[in-house]
Structures are given as structure tokens and as C-alpha cells.
Amino acid sequence: MGVSGSGKSTLGALLAGKLDCPFLEGDDFHEARAVAKMSAGCPLDDDDRWPWLDRLGAAVGDALASRGLVVAACSALRRSYRERLRRAIGAPARFVLLDVSPDELVRRLSQRAGHYMPVSLLDSQLATLERPDADEGVFTLDAVAGPEQLCEIAHAWLTDKALASGH
């Protein structure tokens, strides 16, 4: 989880490869109208997000039922969004927050080609971000580290959590 440009898709794909499980890209679950809205520089509101979170959560739940494990990339910026995802998934879910400075995010987004999310929406995402409370069990990573290193750290955390909780 994290704002645009934090490295969710890169880390998610690497982690799914390491875990030998499916990877679901949250962006693929947006309605065309929501993508058009963001492409035009307009931030999404909750009415745009709820059905998206429900679709993604259901897909994660389905992948869990058939494969036993899945990795998904999703901004999940607010606690209520994370809770909505957990309900839609219907199984234990863990979140890793990729934390990146605003300056680094601007640099990354400015260099990214072929993505609908403009740099102009970064401020609205940062304003929407609710840092997880301790009771949420979200693992925060400084996403300035390289993707492979982040993957190793996230994998170790998830493996320890899985062993400790029996999942």
C-alpha cells in the first residue's frame, strides 16, 4: 500500500514471484470512468473508491480460495479503505506501507511514462493518507531501498507473521 509512485507494483510483483503466488494490480480494478477522472487530474472520492475496493477485495478473496496466497498492490490510503478491503477479502490480510518522501515521489512520478496518474494528484493522495495505527498491524518500509531489498524485508516479515499466526 502507499501513494502513487511509492513502488507498490514493483514490490508486489517481486514478492508474488518470491512467494510463487498470483499478483493482482489494484489499478486494473478501477472503472474506466475513474481512470479518466484521474487522467484529467481530478482526485477520486469515496464514491469512486468503494466499488473499486470491493472488486479488488473480492478478487483477492477468490485468489486466496483457489491458490492459498496472493499479493495485491493497492493504495489503501485510509484506515476505512483497509477495513473495507479486509471485509471484501473475507480472510486475514496483511498490509505493507511503502513510505517515501514527497520529493522522491515527485521525482519518480515525473520519470514514469505511460501511467494515467499525473504528478498533480500527488498532493491529494498525501493529504488522504492516514498512517496506520499500531493496532492495524501494518508493516512500514522506507521505500528508498532497492526493490529487491524491500522484497526480502517484506518476505521475512510476512513469513514471521504467517508462522506466528498459523496462516
List the helices and strands and how they pair.
Blueprint: H1 8-19, E1 23-25, H2 32-39, H3 46-67, E2 71-73, H4 79-89, E3 96-99, H5 102-111, H6 122-128, E4 139-142, H7 147-165
Parallel strand pairs: 1-2, 3-4
Structural descriptors:
single chain, mainly alpha, 7 helices, two-stranded parallel sheet, Rossmann fold, two-stranded parallel ribbon, about 170 residues
What does this protein look like?
The protein contains seven helices and four strands; from the N terminus they run αβααβαβααβα. The chain is mainly α and 167 residues long. It has a single domain, classed as P-loop containing nucleotide triphosphate hydrolases (Rossmann fold, 3-Layer(aba) Sandwich), CATH 3.40.50. The strands form two sheets. Strands 1-2 form a two-stranded parallel ribbon. The longest helix is centred in the middle third of the chain and has 22 residues, at 46-67. The protein is globular and about 40 Å long.
Percent of residues in helices comes to 40-55%
What is the average of the pLDDT values? 90
Q: Low-confidence parts lasting 5 or more residues at pLDDT below 50? A: 163-167
Helix-strand pattern: HEHHEHEHHEH
**Any idea what the radius of gyration is?**
15 Å
How many helical elements? 7
CATH class category name: Alpha Beta
Number of strands: 4
* CA-based shape: globular
Report the span from N to C terminus.
Answer: 20 Å
How does the helix and strand content classify structurally?
mainly alpha
CATH architecture: 3-Layer(aba) Sandwich
- The fourth-level CATH homologous superfamily is P-loop containing nucleotide triphosphate hydrolases
The fraction of residues in strands falls at: 5-15%
Strand order of the largest sheet: 1-2
Total count of domains:
1
Q: How would a textbook summarize the main sheet?
A: 2 strands, parallel
- Named CATH topology: Rossmann fold
